[in-house]
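User: Hey, quick favor. My workstation is busy. Could you predict this chain's structure for me?
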Amino acid sequence: MGLLGPNGAGKSTLLRLMAGLLPVQQGSVLLVGKAIGDYAARERAKKIAFVPQSTHFTFPLSVGEIVEMGRHPHLGRFAPLSREDRAICERALRLCDGLEFKDRPFNELSGGERQRVLIASALAQTPEVLLLDEPTLSLDLSHQILLFEIIRKLHREESLTVIVATHDLNLAGRYLDYLILLKEGGIAAQGKPKEVLTPRLIEKVLDVRVDRLNHRGDFPYFVPAKKAGRL
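Assistant: No problem, here it is.
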């Protein structure tokens, strides 16, 4: 599922509520019928992995150590990683095209490389739900596509639930099954990509005019209209 909308629409706040990182002021957030706040932190971390827009580490950690941190919810106190844990971490890093810099200091990587490592760490948690806040923000085009291919593959083959906040209408329309269009903290539209991604709704919510193309008739694709903005 994708969360779309302008800056300030509430995408990041909604993800943090889903992750249990913000207190619920009204209504409720349920995971498998249980209030998210009723889960102990370790149990919640086994079920939900959240990757924010940016993360900074003060201590000098290697890429491998960052990914291994994803296994902590599954380990006993002071317990070392097992062979299986290490295999899970290596697979996650391989999926995110990061094995080549496994031993490099995390803080020396580029922004896009760091993002791939953080996503690998989240995958190493082996969660049931993966929450991603604008995960393609620092990625080059090839790794943007790689990321969406990965999450679609994990969803289809391993039943991973993935919720992505993104500004990329074309990637959302191409790879995601269901979209929620947010505006000013409320839902402006929701449904399948073809239902939500229409020029009328995009102009109404995002305040930009676009032309819609159909790629092979199976998903929408958008380009700016000749007079796209307000200037």
